[in-house]
Amino acid sequence: MNKVELLSPAGTLEKLKIALDFGADAVYGGVSHFSLRIRSGKEFSYEDFEEGIKYAHERGKKVYATINGFPFNSQLNLLKKHIEKIAAMGPDAIIVATPGVLKLAHEIAPDMPLHLSTQANVMNVLDAKVYADMGATRIITAREISLKDLKEIKKELPELELEVFVHGSMCFAYSGRCLISTLQSGRVPNRGSCANDCRFPYEMYAANPETGTLFKLEEDEGIGTYIMNSKDLNLGSHIKEILDSGVVDSVKIEGRTKTSYYAAVTAKAYRMAIDDYYEGKEDIAKYQYELESLQNRGYTDAYLISRPFEKHDTQSLDFTMQLGTHQVTGESTEDGEYYMCKYKTLPGDELEVVMPLGETIEFVENEFGKTYEKDGRVYMSFAKLQAQNGKIWESVHSGNINPIKLPTKFPPFTFFRIPSHPDMGTYPKK
């Protein structure tokens, strides 16, 4: 049996390493403005991207290069050179969004697998077949597609790989084909520079063209004016249904511009869910404990399992972002010896340890602190905050860039967290 692939976002070289270390089978990311996430594209140099491919391949994992922007005529020569340069690095596939770029990539790198972006909005067998005939080896289907429609595509095109989103930000517009920020700020979403205008609160007015009157519509308290703000996708409770379908080749997590902690926790949660499925078990509370720890806009299971007209809970009208159940306090350095502070930390604070699956640490108690297990989870607390330069701190805060000595060695990029509120830390929220 071929196991489903877990595909995670890689916005930087560090996030690439974290996602793979925490359980992803493959990652996707890009360099330059031809990627649909311009910010992460700038953070990834060609050298870093090539190093990331090497890092993945040394571990038997994959990297998919995103060249899924919508180019202008003036950029076509630059695009050709970019495709050539990326293809020469040996990624495992290139992700493209338009028929023209698909054709061009196939001509430049005929042996390179080509994945069609969700921006192409494939919803049916006819469109899937057209792109497959043009050389696409995988379709990243539209977020609005259903499992039933995926089954129909797989039935007609059994060799075509199908990839679906299971977690991350949802776009107000159909499969991300949005022009709102183009209109308001000149930033073009389908060229990688979306300004997230749908996340803003809006005031609403009514106009009478016959009289020229204009008046503001007042919202009732608690209803909210985030009228285009979609909740975040979370299918962590539906992995069994998705894999039972037998037609999904890859489950994808959105979020190249999100934090390193997001890259780690989403990879870990969905890795647990997938592994549990193949072992014939399921523990939804365990997966959601991790996913609920992330900042989010409220969660929805969206449209893969349910039809769009059956869903009335996909918008967050009264807020744009909320805290998760946990606050990240720090992260270990890549050598696992030191703690880099992300949030106020004091000696004696009980910090929950978030490590990749299968990793263990030594339980110790020494001059620097202690590590221990409680209620099936691993914790660490400092006895003293001693920096790498020997200075002792009474407390450290997010602006403090001094590495703090850990009581024992941790896996690279281990995270430490505390409940966001005293009554948080369990799922579901109290």
From TrEMBL:
One of its GO terms (molecular function) is peptidase activity. One of its GO terms (biological process) is proteolysis. Keywords: Hydrolase, Protease. The keyword Repressor does not apply. The keyword Hydrolase applies. Transmembrane segments: none annotated. It holds the Pfam family Peptidase_U32. Belongs to the peptidase U32 family. This is U32 family peptidase. It comes from Sulfurimonas marina.
